[in-house]
């Protein structure tokens, strides 16, 4: 995805994993913050989108912002 973008797989108990992408996240505080706190809970802000790649369709979260939970 390149050096400036961040791709994540989000997990929540009892729910299937959700792929997420944040374009340009590594140019600001969002990317390093998420990588530095791997495995912790976050409040996420973004929107769901349909991703089509290689003939496959799937839903992913286009992540705009995040904040540590609690």
The total domain count is 1
Number of helices: 1
Instruction: Give the oligomeric state.
Output: single chain
Helix content: 10-25%
Task: Report mean pLDDT, rounded to a whole number.
Answer: 89
Which descriptor suits the 3D outline? globular
- List segments where confidence is low: pLDDT < 50 over at least 5 consecutive residues: none
Sheet/helix structural class: mainly beta
N-C termini distance: 31 Å
Count all strands and give the number: 4
Gyration radius, to the nearest Å? 12 Å
Q: Summarize the main sheet.
A: 4 strands, mixed
Sheet with the most strands: spatial strand order: 1-2-4-3
Strand content: over 45%
Output the helix-strand order: EEHEE
Explained architecture:
A hairpin with a 2-residue loop joins β3 and β4 (56-68). This protein is mainly beta and 70 residues long. The protein has one helix at residues 30-36, and strands spanning 6-10, 18-22, 42-53, 56-68. It has a four-stranded mixed β-sheet. The protein is globular and about 35 Å long. It has one domain.
Strand and helix layout:
Blueprint: E1 6-10, E2 18-22, H1 30-36, E3 42-53, E4 56-68
Parallel strand pairs: 2-4
Antiparallel strand pairs: 1-2, 3-4
Summarize the entry for a quick read.
The chain has 70 residues and is mainly β. The protein has one helix at 30-36; strands spanning 6-10, 18-22, 42-53, 56-68. The radius of gyration is 12 Å and the shape is globular.
